[in-house]
Amino acid sequence: MTRITTDPKVLVGKPVIRGTRLSVEFIIGLLADGWTEQDILDNYPNVVVEDIKACLAEINS
Fold first, then answer.
1. pLDDT score of 1 more than 90
2. Run of H or E including 5
3. What residue numbers bound the domain in which 32 lies?
4. How far is Cα 20 from Cα 8, in angstroms, rounded to an integer?
5. Domains in the chain, number
6. Separation between Cα atoms, residue 55 and residue 3, nearest integer Å
7. 0.85 cut: is pTM over it?
8. How far apart, in Å, are the Cα atoms of 34 and each of 12, 17, 28, 48?
9. CATH number of the CATH domain containing 52
10. How far does CA 54 lie from the centroid of its chain?
11. CB contact at 8 A, 4 and 54
12. Residues whose CB falls within 8 Å of the CB of residue 31, separated by 6 or more in sequence, listed in order
């Protein structure tokens, strides 16, 4: 299953975590601001560790 998707109807086609409106850019921004993976998981219960890893892979591709 692809964890990162794009849909022109969701956030103007920005890559998002499947089933959410959380963009890759947003998650990477949280990490850049000093949030840990655990902080993200605690604050966004629909996100799992694999989603965060997929966001990181997306920006490195």
1. no
2. strand 4-5
3. 4-59
4. 14
5. 1
6. 9
7. yes
8. 27, 20, 10, 18
9. 1.10.10.10
10. 7
11. yes
12. 37, 40, 52, 56
